């Protein structure tokens, strides 16, 4: 808070307290010429009379005590602008102390799982339960309560991993995050193949996942030529993608942003930019391991017998 705002608060608070005190003093006094308590001339229904009796002394004195208490409270707890208060108490300091106590409790809870591999943790029901709780508080906003994802947010329950599904790869994703970039290729493709170039590439990409055939398909054939000139660098000659770059496999039936022509046209023409935030600072090492173990367990058996790298192209 700036010095100017600090003084503004101090002055406003002081004026209000002084105003309450003056008003209480002024209204508590009887002055010459005031009507008698029973003589206000305010009468209703013949016998209902308004009196003008002053407040009892005990009530007035109690009000004065509350004013003194307010002054002491503001001075003790630092209610005068930037003044820290004689007690040096602050809500920030109390929050930090409470957080430290709760963090110590959490560390005690998480200590048994420190440094363990996520495939080992996935075999422990208690560890998985803790990971599920962390997921619900942290990850479900994007990936959903059931971890099935949404448009632009990966489904974590299948066998498809854009950045690799091995335990250490999943942990790396949670700890340090990922940034997937599909460049904008619309202008480049149009310059190479004309106004319909993007549609040609869409037609060919669809054949990679069994949604069409190159035979007798002029658009797909033209699209393959364009694909080989531009897209092959990331997605490979066979369209299997590249986990090291986060480039998805185009031969499966999973489409992160949807498989409609409109969605594919937007992906190719204007690109996509997906970010998985790093959670190392937010969750810490052990909690990241627990949530990674939970995520890994969703698509692997409890015994860890499933091969996380077999036929998997990224979450």
From TrEMBL:
Cofactor(s) required for function per UniProt: heme c
Please give the name of this protein.
Answer: Cbb3-type cytochrome c oxidase subunit
The record's section on Pfam families has: Cytochrome_CBB3 (PF13442), FixP_N (PF14715)
Q: Where does this protein come from, organism-wise?
A: Lysobacter daejeonensis GH1-9
Q: In which pathway does it act?
A: Energy metabolism; oxidative phosphorylation
Record-level Gene Ontology MF annotations:
electron transfer activity; heme binding; metal ion binding; oxidoreductase activity
Question: By its UniProt entry, which NCBIfam families does this protein fall under?
Answer: ccoP
Subunit annotation: Component of the cbb3-type cytochrome c oxidase.
Q: Please give the family membership noted in the entry.
A: Belongs to the CcoP / FixP family.
Function of the protein: C-type cytochrome. Part of the cbb3-type cytochrome c oxidase complex.
Q: Which residues bind heme c 2?
A: 182, 231, 234-235
Q: Where does heme c 1 bind?
A: 139, 142-143, 276
Q: Where in the cell is it found?
A: Cell inner membrane
Free-text comment on the cofactor = Binds 2 heme C groups per subunit.
Q: Where is the Cytochrome c domain?
A: 126-209, 218-299
């Amino acid at each position: 808070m700036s010095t100017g705002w600090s003084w503004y608060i101090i002055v406003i608070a002081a004026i209000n307290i002084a105003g309450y005190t003056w008003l209480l003093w002024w209204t508590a006094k009887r002055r010459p010429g005031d009507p008698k308590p029973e003589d206000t001339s305010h009468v209703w229904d013949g016998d209902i009379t308004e009196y003008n009796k002053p407040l009892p002394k005990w009530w007035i004195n109690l009000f004065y005590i509350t004013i003194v208490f307010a002054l002491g409270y503001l001075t003790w707890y630092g209610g005068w602008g930037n003044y820290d208060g004689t007690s040096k108490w602050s809500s920030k300091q109390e929050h930090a102390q409470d957080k430290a106590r709760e963090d110590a409790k959490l560390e005690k809870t998480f200590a048994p799982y420190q440094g363990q591999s996520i495939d080992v943790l996935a075999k422990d029901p208690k560890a998985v339960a803790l990971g599920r709780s962390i997921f619900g508080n942290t990850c479900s906003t994007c990936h959903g309560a059931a971890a099935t994802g949404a448009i632009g947010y990966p489904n974590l329950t299948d066998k498809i991993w854009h950045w690799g599904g091995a335990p250490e790869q999943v942990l790396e994703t949670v700890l340090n995050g990922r940034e997937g970039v599909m460049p904008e290729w619309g202008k480049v493709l149009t310059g190479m193949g004309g106004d319909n170039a993007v549609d040609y590439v869409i037609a060919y990409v669809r054949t990679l996942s069994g949604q069409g055939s190159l035979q007798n398909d002029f658009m797909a054939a033209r699209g393959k030529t364009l694909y080989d000139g531009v897209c092959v660098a990331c997605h490979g000659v066979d369209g299997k993608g590249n986990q090291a770059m986060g480039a998805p496999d185009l031969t499966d039936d999973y489409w992160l942003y949807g498989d409609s022509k409109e969605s594919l046209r937007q992906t190719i023409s204007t690109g996509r930019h997906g970010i998985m935030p790093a959670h190392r600072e937010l969750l810490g090492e052990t909690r990241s391991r627990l949530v990674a173990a939970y995520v890994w367990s969703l698509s692997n058996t409890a015994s860890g017998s499933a091969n996380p790298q077999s036929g998997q192209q990224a979450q």
